[in-house]
Amino acid sequence: MESRPATVNRTAARVTERARRTPPATAWQRRAAFTACVWMVVFAAFHCYWALGGTIGLPPGESLVDNRPLFVIDLIAIPMNLGGAALALALVQRWGLFFPRRLMLFGVWGCALLMVGHAAPSMVDLAVFLTGQRGKPLTGEDRFSVLVYEPYWMLGGLLFTAMALAFQRRTRPSAAAGRNLAGPSARA
User: For residue 122, what are the contacts with CB-CB under 8 A and spacing of at least 6?
Assistant: First the structure.
């Protein structure tokens, strides 16, 4: 039976080798990641503001402090947004390569699908509004949602989708690298 330090050392060597083989993120990938990080931090800041009783960005007369279920959701959203900010950075930093690739892809695709799925239905309303096909005018609350809130979600979703595709491509193990890691016995 192998000792725990030997297993840890072997795992660390594999991870270090994977990090060495993976090309660095491109300039556009870093810009997208930093933009997504800012997106998440801004959203976390709004959730903190709302949790403290702020009302800007909420429907008229709404306060999360007075609505316990929304307040709890708001408190859960704060660490989730900060985790998303860290994930965005991890996708383009060398230290992010020390996390399992599948875990990183699960996280980034989960963020992308959640955000796009949240905003997609409202994008139809936005298209109808922008083309002048809407029969009745938008109310103040609907206007904020259709013109600001939901496009903000879509922007986040598109950023995370682009980052997911880029990370997936950049970290894809090549067949040759897989053979080299298998060792000489795999070639025989």
Answer: 145, 146, 150
